[in-house]
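Dissemination and training. As part of the outreach component of the grant, students in the summer workshop were shown how a complex can be specified as a set of sequence lines and then modelled as a single object. The example used during the hands-on session is reproduced here so that future cohorts can follow it. Participants entered these lines:
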Amino acid sequence: MSASSPLIYWIRTDFRLQDNAALKAAIETGRPIVPLYLHDRQPEGNWALGGAAKWWLHQALEDFLTRWKAKGGRLILRVTDDVLAELSQVIEETGAEAVYWNRRYEPAGRAVDERVKRELKAAELEVRSFQNELLVEPHTVSTGQGKPYKVYTPFWKAIKDRPLPAIETPALDKLRFPSEWPRSEAVEDCALLPELDWPEKLATEWQVGEDAAQQRLDRFLDGVVNGYNEARDIPSEEGTSRLSPYLRWGHIGPRQVAHRLHAEFDLRQAGPQVYMKELYWREFAYNVLYHFPETADDPLRPEFKKFPWQEDAKLLAAWQRGKTGYPIVDAGMRQLYQTGWMHNRVRMIVASLLVKHLLQPWQAGARWFWDTLVDADLASNSLGWQWSGGCGADAAPYFRIFNPITQGEKFDPEGDYVRQWVPELKKLSNKYIHQPWEAPSGTLQAAGIRLGEDYPKPIIDHKAGRARALAAFEALKNA
DNA sequence: TGAAATGTTGGGGCG
DNA sequence: ACGCCCCAACATTTC
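and obtained this result:
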């Protein structure tokens, strides 16, 4: 092997130059580096990127192009239907003798990576993969019985005292690039942007890229995290980190977040401690999906395959568009569609309504979130929806049914969140903001609301919906 | 990281 | 003074 032949750094969801294990190791070889992104037009499995994710990816690629250019290099972009064939092609064009990447963990990606690694090694290339996107890789965790954890708390206890993996700082000043570059396609060739005006709304909401990720973290650690344990439940406040899309796309890594928490905070304090545990919920989600790869599509608890869902396209559509008649739910669904993101407390509330009151399969909700969230992450999304459906790892018991009225009153007591996203209810007083159908007709009129026209009546009566969900669960138990 | 139903307790009004 | 009732507040259990 020639020491001056190029090395391909294969980029997937690790759009950052800092804290990058594969890149660090690549630079240390002293070889010229070819940064490569392969856009797979026809990925295997059911989870091709959703619309919001594609929009984000487009911006991420542009950010990364700029970033590599600033370093005197390039980002090579290829659109393909066959990742292995395209990678082999680039290897041939460049004369590369090594390929490095950071590991991914979802089932389809793992299958591709295993095949690629086998084939390239058979062709006598040096192939290395690295831990970069997780604090704890799933294959290193098991219970005393040698089984995967299915409950968060024991999982957390088992791994919380492990030393944090060290930050991997690439020596960017030692970067070398080849003198001749292979051809690259343009970001536009990936055809990631939809024809709708949707992206304009997303663009006003999100700054995409590595710098923006660091700014988000700075802002969160500059105070917000101290109140996180309580403020995280109030959707009208900036009480959460909003780092989820940045973690999803690797603009920032969990090591960077965890190390700063350790360095700058006392983790016995409630705020930083609760946030750290949330970071480990992400680890738990990856752990579950890794060990139970079917859980993106099927319930972890197999008896739930027979749950008597009552699929109904109209109900689903009303939920998707934020027209259920329950203000806190509609506010959440509209925030999601308009910004590509929804506050986590509200995610639980809207999920409960869809799965319980409306008896729609959790997979339908998971799919909508997958298409509309900029942070759509297969592991977290699957875990979250199975949690809501009562059929997953450490799930809420099925009979835990959120009351959308009291949840609204508890977590949006002044109605600020509802008024922001459901402006037609703006003039309604706090007393009725979470249950407009209870308002006297004069009050509604004064607020300029004709119920059923300006704003829908409740799609289902809460008490009746709750009773029906419990009956469905009872039927499942007896089946 | 619930909610509702049911049970228990204790204070106050009142005959 | 006492028993009775009502009800709020809290605790427990049930879904």
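The longest helix of chain A spans residues 270-291. Students were then asked to discuss how this feature might be tested experimentally.
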